[in-house]
Amino acid sequence: MGIWNKHFECMERSELKRVQGDRLRDTIERVYFNVPHYRHKMQEAGLAPENIKTLDDIVKLPFTTKNDLRDTYPFGLFAVPMSEIVRLHASSGTTGKPTVVGYTRSDISTWSEVIARTLTSAGADRNDFIQIAYGYGLFTGGLGLHYGGEKIGASVIPVSGGNTTRQLQLMHDFGTTVLACTPSYALYLAEAIEESSINRDELKLKIGVFGAEPWTENMRKEIEQKLNIKATDIYGLSEVIGPGVASECCEQNGLHIFEDHFYPEIIDPETLEVLPEGSMGELVFTTLTKEGLPLIRYRTHDLSRLNYQKCECGRTLVRMSKCLGRSDDMLIIRGVNLFPSQIETVLLEMSEIKPHYLIVVDRVNNLDTLELQVEVDEEYFQDKISQLQSVREKLQYNLENATGLSIKVTLVEPKTIERSEGKAKRVIDKRNY
Amino acid sequence: MIIHQLSVFLENKSGRLSEVLDVLGKENIRITALSVADTNEFGILRIIVSDPEKARTLLKEQKFTVNITEVISVIAPDEAKYYAKILKILSDIEISVEYTYAFSTGRKSVIILKCSDNEKAIKALKINEMELLKASDLYKI
Protein backbone atom coordinates (compact mmCIF):
# COMPACT_ATOMS: atom_id res chain seq x y z
CA MET A 1 0.00 0.00 0.00
CA GLY A 2 1.39 3.39 -0.95
CA ILE A 3 2.33 6.36 1.19
CA TRP A 4 1.55 9.76 -0.33
CA ASN A 5 4.21 11.83 1.43
CA LYS A 6 6.98 9.57 2.76
CA HIS A 7 9.05 12.57 3.84
CA PHE A 8 6.56 13.72 6.47
CA GLU A 9 4.61 10.55 7.12
CA CYS A 10 7.71 8.48 7.90
CA MET A 11 9.89 11.20 9.40
CA GLU A 12 12.09 10.36 12.41
CA ARG A 13 10.17 11.51 15.47
CA SER A 14 13.00 13.75 16.71
CA GLU A 15 13.08 15.50 13.35
CA LEU A 16 9.26 15.76 13.33
CA LYS A 17 9.35 17.35 16.78
CA ARG A 18 11.76 19.99 15.49
CA VAL A 19 9.47 20.73 12.52
CA GLN A 20 6.46 20.95 14.84
CA GLY A 21 8.34 23.30 17.20
CA ASP A 22 9.29 25.64 14.35
CA ARG A 23 5.76 25.66 13.00
CA LEU A 24 4.25 26.22 16.46
CA ARG A 25 6.46 29.28 17.05
CA ASP A 26 5.46 30.64 13.67
CA THR A 27 1.75 30.02 14.37
CA ILE A 28 1.93 31.68 17.80
CA GLU A 29 3.59 34.71 16.34
CA ARG A 30 0.91 35.02 13.66
CA VAL A 31 -2.04 34.65 16.03
CA TYR A 32 -0.50 36.98 18.62
CA PHE A 33 -0.04 39.81 16.18
CA ASN A 34 -3.04 39.21 13.87
CA VAL A 35 -5.85 38.00 16.14
CA PRO A 36 -6.80 40.34 19.01
CA HIS A 37 -8.80 37.59 20.74
CA TYR A 38 -5.77 35.31 20.97
CA ARG A 39 -3.49 38.18 21.94
CA HIS A 40 -5.77 39.13 24.84
CA LYS A 41 -6.01 35.55 26.01
CA MET A 42 -2.22 35.18 25.92
CA GLN A 43 -1.72 38.48 27.71
CA GLU A 44 -4.17 37.44 30.40
CA ALA A 45 -2.08 34.31 30.88
CA GLY A 46 1.02 36.50 31.06
CA LEU A 47 2.42 35.14 27.81
CA ALA A 48 4.20 36.72 24.87
CA PRO A 49 5.37 34.90 21.72
CA GLU A 50 8.94 34.64 23.07
CA ASN A 51 7.66 32.48 25.94
CA ILE A 52 6.88 29.72 23.46
CA LYS A 53 10.31 28.47 22.47
CA THR A 54 9.84 24.73 22.05
CA LEU A 55 6.98 22.33 21.50
CA ASP A 56 6.99 21.53 25.23
CA ASP A 57 6.00 25.12 25.98
CA ILE A 58 2.61 24.50 24.38
CA VAL A 59 1.13 23.51 27.76
CA LYS A 60 1.47 27.12 28.90
CA LEU A 61 -1.03 28.29 26.29
CA PRO A 62 -4.73 28.71 27.08
CA PHE A 63 -7.26 26.38 25.46
CA THR A 64 -9.58 27.43 22.66
CA THR A 65 -13.19 26.23 22.64
CA LYS A 66 -16.28 26.49 20.46
CA ASN A 67 -17.27 29.44 22.66
CA ASP A 68 -14.26 31.40 21.39
CA LEU A 69 -15.52 30.84 17.85
CA ARG A 70 -19.03 31.85 18.85
CA ASP A 71 -17.90 34.98 20.70
CA THR A 72 -15.96 36.14 17.67
CA TYR A 73 -18.60 35.13 15.09
CA PRO A 74 -18.23 35.11 12.18
CA PHE A 75 -14.62 35.93 11.29
CA GLY A 76 -13.07 37.15 14.54
CA LEU A 77 -10.48 34.37 14.88
CA PHE A 78 -9.24 34.64 11.30
CA ALA A 79 -5.55 35.52 11.16
CA VAL A 80 -5.46 36.96 7.64
CA PRO A 81 -7.36 39.78 5.89
CA MET A 82 -10.56 38.58 4.19
CA SER A 83 -8.94 39.26 0.82
CA GLU A 84 -6.74 36.22 1.51
CA ILE A 85 -9.70 33.95 2.29
CA VAL A 86 -10.82 31.90 -0.71
CA ARG A 87 -13.36 29.57 0.91
CA LEU A 88 -15.80 29.58 3.83
CA HIS A 89 -17.48 26.57 5.39
CA ALA A 90 -19.82 26.43 8.36
CA SER A 91 -21.23 23.87 10.72
CA SER A 92 -24.12 24.16 13.12
CA GLY A 93 -23.14 25.85 16.37
CA THR A 94 -24.39 25.30 19.88
CA THR A 95 -26.83 28.17 20.10
CA GLY A 96 -28.15 28.85 16.65
CA LYS A 97 -25.16 30.61 15.19
CA PRO A 98 -22.99 28.45 12.96
CA THR A 99 -19.30 27.85 13.47
CA VAL A 100 -17.55 29.49 10.55
CA VAL A 101 -14.20 28.38 9.15
CA GLY A 102 -12.14 30.16 6.49
CA TYR A 103 -9.38 28.88 4.23
CA THR A 104 -6.62 30.69 2.35
CA ARG A 105 -5.38 29.30 -0.94
CA SER A 106 -2.54 27.67 0.95
CA ASP A 107 -5.01 26.12 3.46
CA ILE A 108 -6.97 24.57 0.58
CA SER A 109 -3.69 23.16 -0.70
CA THR A 110 -2.86 21.75 2.77
CA TRP A 111 -6.33 20.25 2.95
CA SER A 112 -5.91 18.57 -0.45
CA GLU A 113 -2.54 17.25 0.75
CA VAL A 114 -3.90 15.64 3.92
CA ILE A 115 -6.84 14.14 2.03
CA ALA A 116 -4.41 12.82 -0.60
CA ARG A 117 -2.57 11.11 2.28
CA THR A 118 -5.89 9.83 3.66
CA LEU A 119 -7.02 8.33 0.36
CA THR A 120 -3.59 6.84 -0.33
CA SER A 121 -3.43 5.24 3.11
CA ALA A 122 -6.86 3.73 2.43
CA GLY A 123 -5.36 2.15 -0.71
CA ALA A 124 -6.67 4.49 -3.42
CA ASP A 125 -4.65 5.89 -6.35
CA ARG A 126 -5.01 7.62 -9.71
CA ASN A 127 -6.72 4.61 -11.26
CA ASP A 128 -9.65 4.76 -8.87
CA PHE A 129 -13.15 6.13 -9.26
CA ILE A 130 -14.10 7.87 -6.04
CA GLN A 131 -17.79 8.34 -5.38
CA ILE A 132 -18.20 11.11 -2.82
CA ALA A 133 -21.51 10.63 -1.06
CA TYR A 134 -20.73 13.09 1.73
CA GLY A 135 -22.82 16.25 1.50
CA TYR A 136 -21.39 19.05 -0.59
CA GLY A 137 -21.95 22.64 0.48
CA LEU A 138 -21.25 24.31 3.79
CA PHE A 139 -20.44 20.92 5.34
CA THR A 140 -16.72 20.19 4.91
CA GLY A 141 -17.16 16.49 4.07
CA GLY A 142 -17.94 16.65 0.36
CA LEU A 143 -15.58 19.35 -0.87
CA GLY A 144 -12.84 18.22 1.52
CA LEU A 145 -12.67 14.73 0.03
CA HIS A 146 -13.17 16.15 -3.46
CA TYR A 147 -9.95 18.15 -3.72
CA GLY A 148 -7.84 15.38 -2.25
CA GLY A 149 -9.35 12.92 -4.71
CA GLU A 150 -8.38 15.17 -7.59
CA LYS A 151 -4.92 15.65 -6.10
CA ILE A 152 -4.12 11.94 -6.25
CA GLY A 153 -5.42 11.92 -9.81
CA ALA A 154 -8.42 9.70 -9.21
CA SER A 155 -11.68 10.19 -11.12
CA VAL A 156 -13.91 12.00 -8.67
CA ILE A 157 -17.69 11.53 -8.80
CA PRO A 158 -19.19 14.42 -6.78
CA VAL A 159 -22.62 12.88 -6.27
CA SER A 160 -23.10 14.37 -2.75
CA GLY A 161 -25.35 12.80 -0.12
CA GLY A 162 -28.73 11.13 -0.47
CA ASN A 163 -30.66 9.89 -3.52
CA THR A 164 -29.81 6.25 -3.02
CA THR A 165 -31.16 5.07 -6.38
CA ARG A 166 -28.83 7.43 -8.24
CA GLN A 167 -25.92 6.43 -5.98
CA LEU A 168 -26.40 2.79 -6.97
CA GLN A 169 -26.82 3.57 -10.64
CA LEU A 170 -23.61 5.61 -10.80
CA MET A 171 -21.75 3.07 -8.71
CA HIS A 172 -22.76 0.41 -11.20
CA ASP A 173 -22.46 2.33 -14.48
CA PHE A 174 -19.26 4.30 -13.73
CA GLY A 175 -17.51 1.41 -12.00
CA THR A 176 -16.95 3.17 -8.67
CA THR A 177 -14.03 1.63 -6.77
CA VAL A 178 -13.91 3.90 -3.71
CA LEU A 179 -16.94 5.01 -1.70
CA ALA A 180 -16.68 7.98 0.66
CA CYS A 181 -19.61 8.63 3.03
CA THR A 182 -20.73 8.18 6.62
CA PRO A 183 -20.50 4.57 7.87
CA SER A 184 -24.23 4.43 8.56
CA TYR A 185 -24.98 5.51 5.01
CA ALA A 186 -22.56 2.83 3.75
CA LEU A 187 -24.60 0.22 5.57
CA TYR A 188 -27.78 1.69 4.20
CA LEU A 189 -26.36 1.50 0.67
CA ALA A 190 -25.27 -2.10 1.29
CA GLU A 191 -28.84 -3.03 2.08
CA ALA A 192 -30.18 -1.05 -0.85
CA ILE A 193 -27.84 -3.05 -3.12
CA GLU A 194 -29.14 -6.31 -1.67
CA GLU A 195 -32.69 -5.23 -2.40
CA SER A 196 -31.95 -3.89 -5.88
CA SER A 197 -31.57 -5.81 -9.10
CA ILE A 198 -27.82 -5.11 -9.01
CA ASN A 199 -25.62 -8.12 -8.31
CA ARG A 200 -22.63 -7.33 -6.05
CA ASP A 201 -20.34 -9.03 -8.58
CA GLU A 202 -21.24 -6.38 -11.16
CA LEU A 203 -19.78 -3.67 -8.90
CA LYS A 204 -16.08 -2.81 -8.78
CA LEU A 205 -16.20 -1.37 -5.26
CA LYS A 206 -13.13 -2.25 -3.17
CA ILE A 207 -12.49 0.55 -0.67
CA GLY A 208 -14.63 2.59 1.71
CA VAL A 209 -13.52 5.85 3.33
CA PHE A 210 -15.89 6.46 6.19
CA GLY A 211 -16.09 9.15 8.86
CA ALA A 212 -18.03 12.11 10.31
CA GLU A 213 -19.64 9.92 12.97
CA PRO A 214 -18.54 7.28 15.47
CA TRP A 215 -18.66 3.62 14.45
CA THR A 216 -17.58 0.40 16.10
CA GLU A 217 -15.45 -2.53 15.00
CA ASN A 218 -18.66 -4.54 14.71
CA MET A 219 -20.06 -2.03 12.29
CA ARG A 220 -16.83 -2.23 10.32
CA LYS A 221 -17.12 -6.00 10.07
CA GLU A 222 -20.69 -5.73 8.90
CA ILE A 223 -19.87 -3.11 6.25
CA GLU A 224 -16.80 -5.01 5.02
CA GLN A 225 -18.74 -8.23 4.77
CA LYS A 226 -21.87 -6.82 3.17
CA LEU A 227 -20.09 -4.61 0.65
CA ASN A 228 -17.03 -6.86 0.29
CA ILE A 229 -14.65 -3.90 0.68
CA LYS A 230 -11.94 -2.68 3.01
CA ALA A 231 -13.49 -0.03 5.26
CA THR A 232 -11.18 2.76 6.44
CA ASP A 233 -11.96 5.11 9.33
CA ILE A 234 -11.10 8.76 8.78
CA TYR A 235 -11.27 11.60 11.28
CA GLY A 236 -11.58 15.33 11.15
CA LEU A 237 -13.54 18.33 12.34
CA SER A 238 -14.31 21.46 10.42
CA GLU A 239 -12.71 23.79 12.96
CA VAL A 240 -9.33 22.08 12.56
CA ILE A 241 -9.62 21.66 8.75
CA GLY A 242 -12.46 19.22 8.00
CA PRO A 243 -11.84 15.58 7.08
CA GLY A 244 -8.14 14.85 6.77
CA VAL A 245 -6.96 15.35 10.35
CA ALA A 246 -6.25 11.64 10.75
CA SER A 247 -6.76 8.42 8.85
CA GLU A 248 -6.32 4.70 9.27
CA CYS A 249 -3.72 2.84 7.24
CA CYS A 250 -3.89 -0.74 5.95
CA GLU A 251 -3.18 -2.02 9.48
CA GLN A 252 -6.53 -0.66 10.74
CA ASN A 253 -5.02 -0.21 14.17
CA GLY A 254 -5.58 3.43 15.04
CA LEU A 255 -5.73 6.56 12.90
CA HIS A 256 -2.48 8.31 11.93
CA ILE A 257 -2.71 12.00 12.77
CA PHE A 258 -1.04 14.23 10.19
CA GLU A 259 1.10 15.69 12.91
CA ASP A 260 3.19 17.96 10.75
CA HIS A 261 -0.03 20.00 10.35
CA PHE A 262 -2.06 19.21 13.48
CA TYR A 263 -0.45 18.76 16.88
CA PRO A 264 -2.47 16.51 19.21
CA GLU A 265 -2.63 16.40 23.01
CA ILE A 266 -4.79 14.33 25.35
CA ILE A 267 -6.18 16.13 28.39
CA ASP A 268 -8.38 15.32 31.33
CA PRO A 269 -11.64 17.14 30.47
CA GLU A 270 -12.21 17.96 34.15
CA THR A 271 -8.79 19.12 35.36
CA LEU A 272 -7.55 20.18 31.89
CA GLU A 273 -4.17 18.59 32.71
CA VAL A 274 -2.27 16.90 29.89
CA LEU A 275 -2.42 13.15 30.51
CA PRO A 276 0.48 10.70 30.25
CA GLU A 277 1.08 8.90 26.96
CA GLY A 278 -1.49 6.19 26.27
CA SER A 279 -4.19 7.61 28.57
CA MET A 280 -7.78 7.95 27.44
CA GLY A 281 -8.92 11.57 27.47
CA GLU A 282 -10.12 14.50 25.44
CA LEU A 283 -8.35 15.19 22.18
CA VAL A 284 -6.97 18.71 21.75
CA PHE A 285 -5.47 20.06 18.52
CA THR A 286 -3.16 22.92 17.64
CA THR A 287 -2.92 23.69 13.95
CA LEU A 288 0.68 24.16 12.84
CA THR A 289 0.35 25.43 9.28
CA LYS A 290 -3.12 26.87 8.95
CA GLU A 291 -3.31 30.51 7.87
CA GLY A 292 -7.01 31.40 7.70
CA LEU A 293 -8.17 30.03 11.02
CA PRO A 294 -5.25 28.86 13.16
CA LEU A 295 -6.43 27.14 16.34
CA ILE A 296 -4.43 26.96 19.53
CA ARG A 297 -5.13 23.97 21.77
CA TYR A 298 -8.65 23.54 20.46
CA ARG A 299 -10.80 21.26 22.60
CA THR A 300 -12.57 18.72 20.37
CA HIS A 301 -14.54 17.02 23.18
CA ASP A 302 -13.82 13.74 21.35
CA LEU A 303 -12.44 11.02 23.61
CA SER A 304 -9.42 9.07 22.36
CA ARG A 305 -5.91 7.90 23.28
CA LEU A 306 -2.60 8.29 21.48
CA ASN A 307 -0.11 5.59 20.51
CA TYR A 308 3.37 6.79 19.53
CA GLN A 309 4.80 3.40 18.54
CA LYS A 310 5.97 3.03 14.98
CA CYS A 311 3.32 1.40 12.80
CA GLU A 312 3.83 -1.73 10.69
CA CYS A 313 2.84 0.32 7.66
CA GLY A 314 6.07 2.33 7.96
CA ARG A 315 4.53 5.59 9.14
CA THR A 316 6.00 7.19 12.25
CA LEU A 317 2.96 9.43 12.76
CA VAL A 318 1.15 9.02 16.07
CA ARG A 319 -2.03 6.97 16.01
CA MET A 320 -5.25 7.96 17.78
CA SER A 321 -7.77 5.32 18.79
CA LYS A 322 -11.20 5.37 17.15
CA CYS A 323 -13.36 8.09 18.72
CA LEU A 324 -16.37 6.50 20.31
CA GLY A 325 -17.33 8.97 22.97
CA ARG A 326 -17.71 12.66 23.76
CA SER A 327 -16.89 14.70 26.83
CA ASP A 328 -19.89 16.94 26.18
CA ASP A 329 -23.50 16.41 25.12
CA MET A 330 -23.04 16.79 21.37
CA LEU A 331 -24.89 14.25 19.24
CA ILE A 332 -23.92 13.25 15.75
CA ILE A 333 -27.01 12.56 13.64
CA ARG A 334 -26.42 11.36 10.10
CA GLY A 335 -23.05 13.12 10.24
CA VAL A 336 -24.57 16.41 11.41
CA ASN A 337 -23.60 17.80 14.80
CA LEU A 338 -26.47 18.52 17.14
CA PHE A 339 -26.42 20.04 20.60
CA PRO A 340 -29.52 19.69 22.80
CA SER A 341 -29.22 23.43 23.48
CA GLN A 342 -30.12 24.12 19.84
CA ILE A 343 -33.42 22.38 20.36
CA GLU A 344 -33.97 24.19 23.63
CA THR A 345 -33.52 27.55 21.92
CA VAL A 346 -36.27 26.71 19.42
CA LEU A 347 -38.61 25.53 22.18
CA LEU A 348 -38.09 28.67 24.26
CA GLU A 349 -39.14 30.77 21.29
CA MET A 350 -42.53 29.03 21.11
CA SER A 351 -45.08 29.95 23.77
CA GLU A 352 -47.38 27.05 22.86
CA ILE A 353 -45.18 24.42 24.43
CA LYS A 354 -43.20 23.96 27.59
CA PRO A 355 -39.46 23.69 27.24
CA HIS A 356 -39.54 20.23 28.78
CA TYR A 357 -38.31 17.80 26.20
CA LEU A 358 -36.69 14.47 25.57
CA ILE A 359 -34.63 13.61 22.51
CA VAL A 360 -34.79 9.97 21.44
CA VAL A 361 -32.12 8.91 18.95
CA ASP A 362 -32.33 5.54 17.27
CA ARG A 363 -31.02 3.81 14.20
CA VAL A 364 -33.65 2.26 11.96
CA ASN A 365 -32.47 0.49 8.81
CA ASN A 366 -29.03 1.99 9.41
CA LEU A 367 -30.28 5.56 9.30
CA ASP A 368 -30.35 7.70 12.39
CA THR A 369 -33.80 8.78 13.48
CA LEU A 370 -34.57 11.61 15.80
CA GLU A 371 -37.69 12.02 17.84
CA LEU A 372 -38.42 14.98 20.03
CA GLN A 373 -41.00 14.52 22.77
CA VAL A 374 -42.40 17.78 24.07
CA GLU A 375 -45.07 18.59 26.57
CA VAL A 376 -48.20 20.40 25.53
CA ASP A 377 -48.69 23.59 27.50
CA GLU A 378 -51.70 23.14 29.76
CA GLU A 379 -52.79 26.73 29.40
CA TYR A 380 -52.58 26.55 25.67
CA PHE A 381 -54.39 23.25 25.32
CA GLN A 382 -57.86 23.46 23.84
CA ASP A 383 -59.82 20.68 22.37
CA LYS A 384 -59.02 21.25 18.73
CA ILE A 385 -57.00 18.63 16.88
CA SER A 386 -56.09 21.07 14.12
CA GLN A 387 -54.60 23.48 16.62
CA LEU A 388 -52.37 20.85 18.20
CA GLN A 389 -51.29 19.63 14.80
CA SER A 390 -50.38 23.08 13.65
CA VAL A 391 -48.25 23.53 16.77
CA ARG A 392 -46.51 20.28 15.87
CA GLU A 393 -45.91 21.33 12.30
CA LYS A 394 -44.64 24.75 13.29
CA LEU A 395 -42.21 23.20 15.74
CA GLN A 396 -41.01 20.67 13.19
CA TYR A 397 -40.44 23.47 10.69
CA ASN A 398 -38.58 25.67 13.18
CA LEU A 399 -36.39 22.75 14.25
CA GLU A 400 -35.43 21.91 10.70
CA ASN A 401 -34.55 25.55 10.09
CA ALA A 402 -32.37 25.71 13.18
CA THR A 403 -30.62 22.36 12.96
CA GLY A 404 -30.81 21.24 9.33
CA LEU A 405 -32.27 17.96 10.52
CA SER A 406 -35.78 16.66 10.11
CA ILE A 407 -37.01 15.79 13.57
CA LYS A 408 -40.19 13.91 14.35
CA VAL A 409 -42.14 15.77 17.01
CA THR A 410 -44.38 13.89 19.41
CA LEU A 411 -46.64 15.82 21.75
CA VAL A 412 -46.90 14.25 25.16
CA GLU A 413 -48.98 14.95 28.21
CA PRO A 414 -47.71 17.67 30.54
CA LYS A 415 -45.50 16.61 33.43
CA THR A 416 -44.78 13.22 31.91
CA ILE A 417 -41.20 14.02 31.00
CA GLU A 418 -38.98 13.25 33.90
CA ARG A 419 -37.87 16.24 35.97
CA SER A 420 -34.66 15.96 37.86
CA GLU A 421 -32.69 18.30 40.00
CA GLY A 422 -29.58 19.63 38.37
CA LYS A 423 -28.91 18.35 34.89
CA ALA A 424 -32.02 16.76 33.44
CA LYS A 425 -31.76 13.73 31.25
CA ARG A 426 -32.53 15.18 27.85
CA VAL A 427 -31.28 12.50 25.51
CA ILE A 428 -31.89 8.80 25.11
CA ASP A 429 -29.52 7.36 22.52
CA LYS A 430 -30.58 3.86 21.57
CA ARG A 431 -27.95 3.45 18.85
CA ASN A 432 -25.30 0.82 19.44
CA TYR A 433 -21.83 1.97 18.65
CA MET B 1 -78.13 26.38 27.12
CA ILE B 2 -74.37 26.20 27.14
CA ILE B 3 -73.07 22.83 28.21
CA HIS B 4 -69.69 22.34 29.80
CA GLN B 5 -67.84 19.53 28.11
CA LEU B 6 -64.53 18.17 29.38
CA SER B 7 -61.70 17.82 26.88
CA VAL B 8 -58.77 15.65 27.89
CA PHE B 9 -55.49 15.42 25.98
CA LEU B 10 -54.47 11.78 25.59
CA GLU B 11 -51.14 10.45 24.49
CA ASN B 12 -51.41 7.52 22.17
CA LYS B 13 -50.57 4.96 24.85
CA SER B 14 -52.63 1.95 25.67
CA GLY B 15 -54.56 2.24 28.90
CA ARG B 16 -54.82 6.03 28.98
CA LEU B 17 -58.54 6.14 28.28
CA SER B 18 -59.38 3.57 30.90
CA GLU B 19 -57.31 5.50 33.44
CA VAL B 20 -59.48 8.56 32.85
CA LEU B 21 -62.63 6.53 33.27
CA ASP B 22 -61.28 4.88 36.42
CA VAL B 23 -60.65 8.25 38.03
CA LEU B 24 -64.21 9.35 37.31
CA GLY B 25 -65.76 6.01 38.14
CA LYS B 26 -64.29 5.94 41.64
CA GLU B 27 -66.10 9.18 42.47
CA ASN B 28 -69.37 8.03 40.92
CA ILE B 29 -69.34 10.61 38.21
CA ARG B 30 -71.78 9.74 35.44
CA ILE B 31 -70.94 10.07 31.78
CA THR B 32 -73.71 11.18 29.47
CA ALA B 33 -71.78 11.35 26.24
CA LEU B 34 -68.28 10.45 25.13
CA SER B 35 -66.30 10.81 21.95
CA VAL B 36 -62.62 10.39 21.07
CA ALA B 37 -60.91 12.26 18.27
CA ASP B 38 -57.62 10.71 17.35
CA THR B 39 -54.57 11.25 15.17
CA ASN B 40 -51.55 9.01 14.71
CA GLU B 41 -49.86 10.37 17.77
CA PHE B 42 -52.41 11.70 20.19
CA GLY B 43 -56.11 11.92 20.87
CA ILE B 44 -58.61 14.20 22.53
CA LEU B 45 -61.28 12.70 24.71
CA ARG B 46 -64.51 14.70 24.91
CA ILE B 47 -66.99 13.84 27.64
CA ILE B 48 -70.12 15.28 29.13
CA VAL B 49 -70.40 14.33 32.77
CA SER B 50 -72.71 14.90 35.70
CA ASP B 51 -70.30 17.19 37.52
CA PRO B 52 -67.79 18.79 35.14
CA GLU B 53 -66.01 20.97 37.74
CA LYS B 54 -65.46 18.08 40.10
CA ALA B 55 -64.37 15.84 37.24
CA ARG B 56 -61.87 18.44 36.09
CA THR B 57 -60.36 18.76 39.54
CA LEU B 58 -60.09 14.99 39.92
CA LEU B 59 -58.39 14.58 36.55
CA LYS B 60 -56.02 17.45 37.17
CA GLU B 61 -54.99 15.84 40.42
CA GLN B 62 -54.05 12.79 38.38
CA LYS B 63 -51.94 14.98 36.04
CA PHE B 64 -54.24 14.91 33.06
CA THR B 65 -54.45 17.92 30.80
CA VAL B 66 -58.09 18.94 30.98
CA ASN B 67 -60.02 21.83 29.64
CA ILE B 68 -63.65 22.79 29.81
CA THR B 69 -65.13 23.53 26.43
CA GLU B 70 -68.52 25.06 25.79
CA VAL B 71 -70.82 23.09 23.50
CA ILE B 72 -74.54 23.05 22.80
CA SER B 73 -76.98 20.20 22.55
CA VAL B 74 -80.10 19.67 20.46
CA ILE B 75 -82.59 16.86 20.71
CA ALA B 76 -84.35 15.76 17.54
CA PRO B 77 -85.98 12.66 16.02
CA ASP B 78 -83.35 10.15 15.01
CA GLU B 79 -83.71 10.71 11.31
CA ALA B 80 -80.97 12.04 9.08
CA LYS B 81 -83.13 14.83 7.73
CA TYR B 82 -83.33 16.49 11.17
CA TYR B 83 -79.57 16.41 11.62
CA ALA B 84 -79.23 17.85 8.15
CA LYS B 85 -81.71 20.58 8.95
CA ILE B 86 -79.80 21.65 12.05
CA LEU B 87 -76.58 21.88 10.12
CA LYS B 88 -78.33 23.82 7.35
CA ILE B 89 -79.69 26.39 9.83
CA LEU B 90 -76.18 27.00 11.09
CA SER B 91 -74.46 27.08 7.72
CA ASP B 92 -77.06 29.54 6.40
CA ILE B 93 -75.87 32.11 8.91
CA GLU B 94 -72.24 31.15 8.40
CA ILE B 95 -71.66 29.42 11.68
CA SER B 96 -69.21 26.61 11.26
CA VAL B 97 -69.41 23.41 13.22
CA GLU B 98 -65.99 22.53 14.55
CA TYR B 99 -67.10 19.06 15.53
CA THR B 100 -70.24 17.19 16.41
CA TYR B 101 -71.23 13.85 17.83
CA ALA B 102 -74.53 12.28 18.75
CA PHE B 103 -76.17 9.42 20.53
CA SER B 104 -79.65 7.96 20.25
CA THR B 105 -82.19 7.39 23.03
CA GLY B 106 -85.00 5.34 21.64
CA ARG B 107 -86.61 7.34 18.85
CA LYS B 108 -84.71 10.53 19.55
CA SER B 109 -81.14 11.64 19.04
CA VAL B 110 -79.15 13.90 21.28
CA ILE B 111 -76.76 15.95 19.17
CA ILE B 112 -73.72 17.75 20.60
CA LEU B 113 -72.32 20.62 18.60
CA LYS B 114 -69.22 22.78 18.98
CA CYS B 115 -69.87 25.86 16.90
CA SER B 116 -67.72 28.80 15.95
CA ASP B 117 -70.24 30.98 17.80
CA ASN B 118 -72.34 29.02 20.27
CA GLU B 119 -74.56 31.94 21.42
CA LYS B 120 -75.50 32.85 17.88
CA ALA B 121 -76.15 29.19 17.11
CA ILE B 122 -78.52 28.87 20.10
CA LYS B 123 -80.53 31.87 18.92
CA ALA B 124 -80.78 30.59 15.37
CA LEU B 125 -81.83 27.10 16.45
CA LYS B 126 -84.47 28.52 18.82
CA ILE B 127 -85.95 30.71 16.08
CA ASN B 128 -86.22 27.59 13.95
CA GLU B 129 -88.04 25.83 16.78
CA MET B 130 -85.39 23.26 17.46
CA GLU B 131 -85.42 21.74 20.93
CA LEU B 132 -82.28 22.69 22.86
CA LEU B 133 -81.17 20.85 25.97
CA LYS B 134 -79.91 22.44 29.15
CA ALA B 135 -77.04 20.86 31.04
CA SER B 136 -79.42 19.68 33.74
CA ASP B 137 -81.61 17.97 31.10
CA LEU B 138 -78.64 16.21 29.63
CA TYR B 139 -77.45 14.73 32.90
CA LYS B 140 -80.89 13.25 33.45
CA ILE B 141 -80.88 11.27 30.21
Structural overview:
The complex is a heterodimer of chains A (433) and B (141). Chain A is α/β, with parallel strands linked by helices and 433 residues long. Chain A has two domains: 1-328, Rossmann fold (3-Layer(aba) Sandwich); 336-429, ANL, C-terminal domain (GMP Synthetase, Chain A, domain 3, 2-Layer Sandwich). Chain A has eleven helices and 21 strands. In chain A, the strands form five sheets. A nine-stranded mixed beta sheet of chain A has the order 4-3-5-6-7-8-9-14-13, sandwiched between helices. Chain A has a four-stranded antiparallel beta sheet with strand order 10-11-12-15. In chain A, strands 20-19-18-21 form a four-stranded mixed beta sheet. Chain A is globular, with a radius of gyration of 23 Å. The mean pLDDT of chain A is 92. By secondary structure, chain B is α+β, with helices and mostly antiparallel strands. Chain B folds into two domains: 3-69, VC0802-like, CATH 3.30.2130.10; 71-140, VC0802-like, CATH 3.30.2130. Helices cover 35% and strands 40% of the residues of chain B. The longest helix of chain B is centred in the middle third of the chain and has 13 residues, at 80-92. Chain B is globular, with a radius of gyration of 16 Å. In chain B, 27% of the residues are buried. The model of chain B has no long low-confidence stretch (mean pLDDT 91). Classes of the chains: A alpha/beta (433), B alpha+beta (141). The A-B interface holds A 376, 378, 381-385, 388-389, 392, 410-416 and B 5, 7, 9-11, 37, 39, 41-42, 44, 46, 63-65, 67, 69, 98, 114.
